[in-house]
Request: fold
Amino acid sequence: MRKIAYLVLFLIMLPILIGGAISCKSSPSPSSSLDESTLRAYADPATETTLQGLSENNLAKYIQYGNAQFKAAVTQQILDTTASQISGELGTYQSKEFLRTEEQEGYVIVHYKVQFTKGSVGVRMVFDNDHLDAGQWFE
Reply:
């Protein structure tokens, strides 16, 4: 499972990380400045569509809420590989449960517990200032 998490992280986030969008060395700090209802109004539907797109191996759906960097980073080949690994290890996407949010270097990170047919996993969705998906991390 860890191999899949690291591969997905690497494949999806590498171009963003190289561009300096998110620094993995900084420690996350909970933020009280986030309005949960406002944040969830954009994060929940974007996360739902992204996870459905991954489960269906549907590139257009997967990147629908992505920012320009996310869309440029995810090709059909990357999605094919990632979707195959997630599907093989976890099955198909079933549901998500909101856990918490935090801010980090100008990004909003939303933590979910995501249920697949074969088990559950933590997923962090990263959103930019325009409320667009800037990354997705499987834990």
Remarks:
- The radius of gyration is 14 Å.
- Helices lie at 2-18, 36-56, 59-62, 68-73, 76-90.
